[in-house]
Amino acid sequence: MFSRILIANRGEIALRILRACKDMGIETVACYSEADRDLLHLRYADETICIGPAASSDSYLNIPALIAAAEITDVEAIHPGYGFLSENEHFAEVCQSCNIKFIGPSPKAIAQCGDKVAAKQLAKLSGVPTVPGSDGPIEDEQQAVQIARQIGFPVLVKAAAGGGGRGMRVAHNEPSLVTGFHAARAEAEKAFKNGTVYLEKYIEKPRHVEIQIVGDQHGNVVHFGERDCSLQRRHQKLLEESPCPVLDPETRAKMGEAAIRLAKAANYYSAGTVEFLLDKDKNFYFIEINSRIQVEHPVTEMVTGVDLIREMIQIANGERLSVRQEDVQLRGHAMEFRINAEDPERGFKPSPGKIHTFVAPAGPGVRWDSHVYQGYTVPPHYDSMVGKLIIHRPNRKLVIETARRALQELTLQGITTTVGLFLRILDHSDFAAGDIDTGFIDRYFTPR
Q1: CATH of the domain at 47
Q2: DSSP category for residue 84
Q3: Which partner for 245 in 92, 319, 333, 434 could form a disulfide, CB atoms 3.0-4.6 Å apart?
Q4: Is 123 a member of any domain?
Q5: Last residue of a domain, one of 56, 82, 103
Q6: What φ, ψ does residue 120 adopt, rounded to 5°?
Q7: Do 40 and 10 contact (CB within 8 A), yes or no?
Q8: Low-confidence ranges of the chain (pLDDT < 70)
Q9: What is the Cα–Cα distance from 415 to 433, expressed in whole angstroms?
């Protein structure tokens, strides 16, 4: 096993990785930007090293600085967490060339999964259902209109690279398609330095359901059930749960088998997620692969009892998966609430600042994954998430009851958060009934 790992990330995921390493007896090196000198995981790391100024481009996205930090501190492997360089094939290649293990998929798999057009083509070849749309990139607005006429409106223009809802536009007619085509290309070029877009049929009121897969370097791939990630704002997830309230065992098995076929076709190893849209008739369609650990991975850990970060580290070390498919059982129900330093009443405006009073929720079935503490200042430079509240109980009704109590216990004075929004969501009759889709937040909880 590795004796020393560099954690190339910040915030709660850096602390989560550090804890897994500590459990495994692995020394940790924590890198940080000049704005992150007060991060909690720096207190527990065996060594810390500054990698640059506050700007992500000069620190957490600075490949030469990270490799230099890894070489100076003499680590054997780097865990990228999620975001930043976690899905950057060039970073994985540089690690490989420097004889440093990248705790994630191979560079080739990252490249194939990161290009949504290539991933969709691989899905088709693997017999995985895909949303009707273009066979490749859309070159101009005339081609976009022609394909839209064939598959019918509404349609979705999507960036081939990147994620997080950027470079996406819904069009219900030809004029809005022309506008959306140019807007999506411009946004994708700015965000990902890649303006390539493609076209898909827009599925009305779908659920966003993803399958957690983990593969090893010996050809074994296992799926760990699904997560329903339908509660989103502008394609950014806010709440995730497992199992999906409307998924039956037969459909779950089919989705899991499809995800495994696709992962094997890509020679995929490490943790990853195969994402699908689920329509009202329970037909599912592949949309993309995320070649990294997900923010919402604790939901799966709670219902399966498997430490996914530990699996990633062991797989990077050449070990086989610790479980077989028949060992995976979903027990109870879990939800994750992303607590962001944002003001939902003001268009989710970021709310950085100092946390004057902090009280973490506790009690049966409550897990709190966070890097914040009383006196910590949430910086304005990075993602606004300050913690994840994960609830695991025997059934969904009990999860909602416990979540309501835990959210009321959580105290983060000094900043505005999304706690109040979640309390309102829990009280909504459609949510209680599991009657949700990707437009739920926009319909009921977005200020007009």
Answers
A1: 3.40.50.20
A2: T
A3: 434
A4: no
A5: 103
A6: -65, -40
A7: no
A8: 164, 448
A9: 32
| CATH number of the domain bearing residue 345 | 3.30.470.20
The answer to whether residue 165 sits within a structural domain is yes
> Is 270 in contact with 105 (CB distance < 8 Å)?
yes
d(CA 426, CA 424): 5
Domain final residue, candidates 84, 103, 122: 103
Task: Identify whether 127 is part of a domain.
Answer: no
Tell me, yes or no, whether 171 and 221 share the same domain. no
Assess whether 324 carries a catalytic annotation: no
pLDDT at 448: 63
Q: What is the pLDDT of residue 204?
A: 87
Q: What is the mean pLDDT of the chain?
A: 96
pLDDT of residue 191: 87
Catalytic residue among 207, 261, 292, 367: 292
pTM: 0.91
Q: Are residues 357 and 438 in the same domain?
A: yes
Domain that holds residue 166: 132-201
pLDDT of residue 116: 84
- What's the structural domain count of the chain? 3
The helix (run of H) or strand (run of E) holding residue 290 is strand 284-290
Place of tokens 């897990």: 367
Q: What is the pLDDT of residue 193?
A: 86
Q: According to the 3-state scheme, what is the secondary structure of 43-75?
A: HHCCEEEEEECCCHHHCCCCHHHHHHHHHHCCC
Whether 399 and 291 share a structural domain: yes
Collapsed DSSP state (helix, strand, coil) of residue 127:
coil
d(CA 235, CA 217) in angstroms, rounded, equals 32
